[in-house]
Amino acid sequence: MSDFTPFPETRWTALRALKSDDNATRQLGWDVVARLYWHPVVSYVCVKWNLSEHDAQDTAQNFFTFALERDTLAKYEPGKARFRSFLRVCLDRFLINEHHARSAQKRGGGRVESIETAGADGTPLDPVDPEKLDDLFEREWRRSLFEAAVSEVETSCATDTQKLQFALFRRYDIDRGSDDRLTYDDLAREFNLSVTSVTNHLHAVRTRVRLALLEQLRAITASEQEFLEESQALFGARPAQR
Amino acid sequence: MRLGDDALLRLTTALDEPDLSGTRYRLIGPLGQGGMGNVYVAEDTVLLRNVALKVLRVQDSTGELAARLESEARVAAALEHPGIIPIHDLGILPDGRVFYVSKLVQGIRLDEYAARTESLADKLRVFIKICEAVAYAHSRKVLHRDLKPANIMVGEFGEVLILDWGTAREQQADASHTAGHGTHGYMPPEQERGEALDARADIFALGATLREFVTLRSMPKPLASIITKAMHHDKSGRYDSALALSDDVARFIDGEPVAAHRETPLEMLVRQVNKHRFILIILLTYMLIRLIFFLALKR
């Protein structure tokens, strides 16, 4: 069992919390959803609407505010679709309405251009491949999930040993970019440890990050089945090319 | 903290890798993935040999998946037969995931073997070995319930190994274990309906496997009848054992009449001619030579 469970109950999920009558619980659910979907939404808006990151963040902020005020995401029905797909539909509708409102404002209620053919400023926009948009949203969602899990573990590192473990993990798994030459031997020399200690420390942090990640995933899936499917998509060993 | 693409990719792999510290195994690399677990190649550092290590992908909250993986290992471990994958070990990783270790199978999947093999007789001999392994499991009251070419490996010398006993159950098990398991196209109607199963459920899957396995343009009638009988929609119409099925296939290879097909006199004649064609050719050649000599002498 993870030491890093941020929620009051094991079976607590943010999606259930969104439907709660209790304001505090609902707010907790909102915080989780907004935290995990903030970057995916910003990136998606950025690419789909050809906006600068700053404008995309404003739009994302407006979307989350709108969704919170209208309780839009609480209308999600598990079993009909994945929450991620539902959120995308809500976001697309919001973007279209926003665009229509802006266009109407600019043209004094005249003709409205399609969001697919015009940017936020009304300039023609090259249509973006829907598959690329799907991939982008999925990738950013995964990234958010991993980032949240890593941050959670980092925050929880209290002892010197845990801090050392996390420093090793950060050096080897996060900060080295595309450098594939770094070995456990290098790390052992750099941190003045034995290779066995490096191996054990890295495994210890990875196990904690993995558990934190799965807790995050559990919190934003509506059922055990969805959780298992999502975890299969998230992980899943791929055989080496032979 | 923002993660770059490289870090994301590295973490996806690193977090999924089983932590084998404290075990006798050393991870070598991923091999594949099944319905509930990932399979890796690992080195047994005590016996100095490579093994297959199957790890539960994710611990479910009910523990059902862990129980299924344990059951898969225990069921297969109880079946000691050359045609059934040997299990070496069962344990729990530091992160709580169940794993088991089995022989690292060197070979190809049955469907790949079928695609590479031309000789129908060779294919059918391999099929007989599969039937014998299944018959052994049935004799131990174990049903596989998910037999299909993807779950059968063929080795370099034509040896077979049946894998993936994850859905296997004892024959007396109640029907509640049946629902939701198996593969469409290989499972019999009673399994699709979630009813209690007996050995004839696996017979149906063997029939479906044979049908896919032989893939002939023109299927000989007796072989087609064997498949039809094995895959009869009503289980009472199927072979009552895997050995009965393999016996019929063996009779077909030997050119004997098969139980699944009542042949016409013409079919019997063709079969006999086919079976004894070499003797017939020698006999006919001898008679032709005698005739030529006779005609030559008469002149």
Characterize the main sheet of chain B: 5 strands, antiparallel
Q: Describe the largest sheet of chain A.
A: none
Q: In CATH, what is the homologous superfamily of the largest domain in chain B?
A: Transferase(Phosphotransferase) domain 1
Q: What overall geometry of chain A do the principal axes of the alpha carbons give?
A: globular
Overall number of strands of chain B = 10
Give helix and strand order of chain A, one letter per element, not per position. HHHHHHHHH
How many DSSP H or I helices of chain A? 9
Rg of chain A, Cα atoms, Å: 21 Å
Q: Helical proportion of chain A?
A: 55-70%
Number of helices of chain B: 10
On the 0-100 scale, what is the average pLDDT of chain B?
A: 87
- CATH top level label of the largest domain in chain B: Mainly Alpha
Question: How does this model look, in words?
Answer:
The complex is a heterodimer of chains A (242) and B (299). Chain A has 242 residues and is an all-alpha fold. Chain A has one domain. Helices cover 65% and strands 0% of the residues of chain A. Chain A is built from 9 helices and no strands. Chain A has helices spanning 14-17, 23-48, 53-70, 83-106, 130-156, 160-174, 184-191, 195-219, 224-234. In chain A, helix 6 crosses helix 8 (195-219). The longest helix of chain A is centred in the middle third of the chain and has 27 residues, at 130-156. Mean pLDDT of chain A is 80; it is low at 1-10, 110-117 and 237-242. Chain B has helices spanning 5-16, 64-78, 110-116, 120-139, 189-192, 199-214, 221-230, 242-253, 265-275, 277-298, and strands at 25-33, 37-44, 49-56, 87-92, 98-103, 108-109, 142-143, 152-154, 160-162, 169-170. In chain B, a hairpin with a 5-residue loop joins strand 8 (152-154) and strand 9. Chain B has 10 helices and 10 strands. The mean pLDDT of chain B is 87. Chain B is an alpha+beta fold and 299 residues long. Chain B folds into 3 domains: 7-103, Phosphorylase Kinase, domain 1, CATH 3.30.200.20; 107-253, Transferase(Phosphotransferase), domain 1 (Orthogonal Bundle), CATH 1.10.510.10; 266-298. Classes of the chains: A mainly alpha (242), B alpha+beta (299). At the A-B interface, helix 5, helix 8 and helix 9 of A face helix 1, strand 1 and strand 2 of B.
